[in-house]
Specification:
This protein is mostly beta strands and 287 residues long. It folds into 2 domains: 145 residues, Trypsin-like serine proteases (Thrombin, subunit H, Beta Barrel), CATH 2.40.10.10; 111 residues, Thrombin, subunit H (Beta Barrel). Helix content is 9%, strand content 34%. Strands 3, 5, 6, 7, 8, 9, 10 and 11 form an 8-stranded antiparallel sheet that branches. It has a 6-stranded antiparallel β-barrel with strand order 12-13-14-17-16-15. A hairpin with a 2-residue loop joins β15 and β16. 48% of the residues are buried. The N terminus is likely disordered.
Length: 287
């Protein structure tokens, strides 16, 4: 799985008091096919969202494992079911890959559930590999899903929420990524509670060329080192509205200093892309 990370200059006492000189780099977590296949024979591994909790069966039924092979290597990402025919993920998870193995309906990334293979994806036309702006992509599901307790669609934001900052709202991020910087992919889905912060606060760390209007940032509710990590890219950030889960973000980037450091996590702001998603998928836009 891939997670793109942002190099940020932090002043000596550790506070981001002024805009840093931001550099963007990629951190792609990949495994060889032989190593990946052997995971299913091992004892279950702990969940890998940094300082999070393991998910229960059917707790996060909209989560998708996205495995994209090149030769004998798999890139591992997360994604979400936004309709019975489409998966939402990050552009850097599909950019350069022609095949995506999609696993639905399971909390393990290697066994169980339902697997379909897609040979195409649609990357946002303004995706920028340098600063990760417009880091969003959709993958068509070859055979429409049959919804069950383990396979469910996540709701997208409304048209009215395009202008919402979601600041200080409690959210949940989920994925099969590492529990620490440089750690390996996990077999078990994990989740963590986050708090959305204002873009102005996030830009203090990453700068205004990275933290643009369609970016959303969050910090761990359970502590400053809680959040997504290497391998969680493309996964969903969700909130609860009137008892229903809504996806407000797509995991995009984090600080190169590592996911065990107290820096915000970066997401694509889903509400800013609902019209593009509608144009490509015909998924209705809620008022």
């Amino acid at each position: 799985m891939k997670l793109f990370v942002v190099l940020c200059a932090i002043i000596a006492h550790g506070l981001a008091a002024s805009l840093p000189n931001v550099q963007i780099t990629t951190f792609r977590e990949s495994v060889r096919a032989s190593a990946y296949n052997s995971l299913s024979a091992k004892a279950p591994l702990v969940g890998r969202i940094a300082n999070g909790q393991p998910a229960n069966e059917n707790q996060i039924p909209y989560q998708v494992a996205v495995l994209s092979p090149i030769g004998h290597v798999f890139s591992i990402c997360g994604g979400s079911i936004i309709s019975t025919g489409w998966v939402l993920t990050a552009a850097h998870c599909t950019d350069g890959y022609s095949q995506h193995n999609l696993r639905f309906g399971t909390i393990t990334s290697t066994i169980g559930g339902q697997v379909q293979t897609a040979f195409e994806s649609i990357i946002h036309p303004e995706y920028n590999r340098d600063n990760k702006n417009f880091d969003i992509s959709i993958i068509p599901i070859p055979t429409p899903l049959v919804l069950t307790a383990a396979i469910q669609v996540i709701r997208l934001p409304t048209n009215r929420q395009i202008s919402s900052t979601f600041a200080d709202v409690s959210a949940v991020v989920s994925g099969w990524g590492s529990t620490y910087n440089g750690g390996g992919a996990s077999q078990i889905l994990n989740w963590a509670e986050m708090r959305v912060i204002r873009n102005s606060e996030c830009a203090d760390f990453f700068g205004n060329t990275v933290v643009v209007d369609h970016v959303l940032c969050a910090v761990g509710s359970g502590g400053p080192t809680q959040g997504h990590c290497g391998g969680d890219s493309g996964g969903p950030l969700t909130i609860v509205e009137a008892g229903v889960r809504t996806q407000i973000g797509v995991v995009s980037f984090g600080a190169a200093a590592g996911c065990n450091n107290p820096y915000p996590s970066g997401y694509m702001r889903t509400s800013n892309f609902i019209h593009w998603i509608n144009e490509k998928t015909s998924i209705p836009i809620r008022p």
